[in-house]
Amino acid sequence: MDQLRIKDLEVYAYHGVFQAEKEMGQRFVLDVCIDYDMTRTARTEDLTSSIHYGILAEQLTGWMQGDQVDLIETVAFQLVQHIFETYNFVSKVRLEVKKPWAPVALPLDTCSVTIEREKKRAFIGLGSNMGDKGQQLATAVSKLEEKGIMILQTSSQIETAPWGGVEQDSFLNQVVEVETWFTPQDLIETLLEIELEMGRVREVKWGPRVIDLDLLYMEDLILYSPDLILPHPYVAERAFILESLNEIAPYFVDPVQRKQIRQLWEAVKETKGS
């Protein structure tokens, strides 16, 4: 991938744990690498599809000299966030924040942190069986966009019987394909945050819910952790998920089953019919 780099940009700013750092300020040094396709710009010299490094340097300086924070980890994360929000064609950012005047009473050249984030595609399952179900799904999609998650495709909304054995109203379900620079853990925490904002209360497992947001896939990532399993452990068993996925991404390959969605959907349909 093509890459723009700004190396050793010096910015005087007021970040740090100690009050003196916030009052007196100090020198920070930035090293940023940004990946995006430069083909159109190279061929046409149209800067609207590229990044003017002079403007970017000014933006980085302005962003750094904004709100004061304690940690350079926060500074680096916020700068990466600003870059993705300002330039939607950027696919990857690697940014190092150096703190050469760090208050450490030992001989050292500099202290620094580096944050690297890359845009990935993911599939999210949505469901609701309380209130105006269609409006609940639409609200959830809007909230995803408000959190900086780009919606690429949305499936049709389909009505399904409740799954899990709890007697309750039918569900309205949908799957959306999104693009995000969030890590898997960031993304799942964002989904939980949206559920909370919309009033979901977790009382009965697989019980009624205002909104349910499940992270189904994040490209071909396979992940097993106490907080998150990818792909979603029930994705290949739930016909309503596969039906919606088949509508918008029939040739996506499940990294565990090693089959295309359309093949998993056909297998589930055959099982239901037998």
Could you walk me through the main structural features you see in this protein, from its secondary elements to its overall organization?
With 274 residues, the chain is α+β, with helices and mostly antiparallel strands. It has 2 domains: 3-118, 2-Layer Sandwich (GTP Cyclohydrolase I, domain 2); 120-273, Alpha-Beta Plaits (2-Layer Sandwich). Helices cover 33% and strands 29% of the residues. It contains 8 helices and 13 strands. Strands 5, 6, 7, 8 and 9 form a 5-stranded antiparallel β-sheet that branches. The protein has a 4-stranded antiparallel β-sheet with strand order 1-2-3-4. It has a two-stranded antiparallel sheet with strand order 10-11. Helix 7 runs antiparallel to helix 8 (261-273). The longest helix is centred in the first third of the chain and has 15 residues, at 72-86. It is elongated. The N and C termini lie far apart (49 Å). Its EC number is 4.1.2.25, 2.7.6.3.
Which structural traits does this protein have?
GTP Cyclohydrolase I, domain 2; 33% helix; kinase; 274 residues; Alpha-Beta Plaits; transferase; 29% strand
CATH superfamily of the largest domain: 7,8-Dihydro-6-hydroxymethylpterin-pyrophosphokinase HPPK
What is the top-level CATH class of the largest domain?
A: Alpha Beta
Low-confidence stretches: none
| Fraction of residues in H or I helices | 25-40%
- Euclidean distance between termini CA atoms: 49 Å
Chain-averaged pLDDT: 92
Question: How do the strands and helices of this protein lay out in sequence?
Answer:
Layout: E1 3-13, H1 19-24, E2 26-35, H2 39-44, H3 53-64, H4 72-86, E3 92-99, E4 111-118, E5 120-128, H5 133-146, E6 150-154, E7 158-160, E8 171-180, H6 184-197, E9 212-218, E10 223-224, E11 229-230, H7 239-248, E12 253-254, E13 259-260, H8 261-273
Helix pairs in contact: 7-8
